[in-house]
Design brief:
Layout lengths: L2 E6 L2 E6 L4 H19 L7 H37 L1
Antiparallel strand pairs: 1-2
Length: about 80
Amino acid sequence: MPSYNLSILGLELSFKTDAPQERVDSAKELVEQRYNMLKAGGKALGKEKLLAFVALGLADDVLMSHRQLGDLESRVSRLLTKID
């Protein structure tokens, strides 16, 4: 399992994951983009609060994606039933 040393928003992180470098870089970029969008919103919030909002936003994205996937799976199942 590859090890990564990552600097994200001034924080140094070290971790191991099976994810390829491209996916780690994309995740880092997404977190930084969301953080910068919130920071540009004008409210003077600390880094911890901004990161908590980023985490909540990303968690909501995951939950919505799971819901959409479930809906699509249900639709495909119904369509397959009609085909049979």
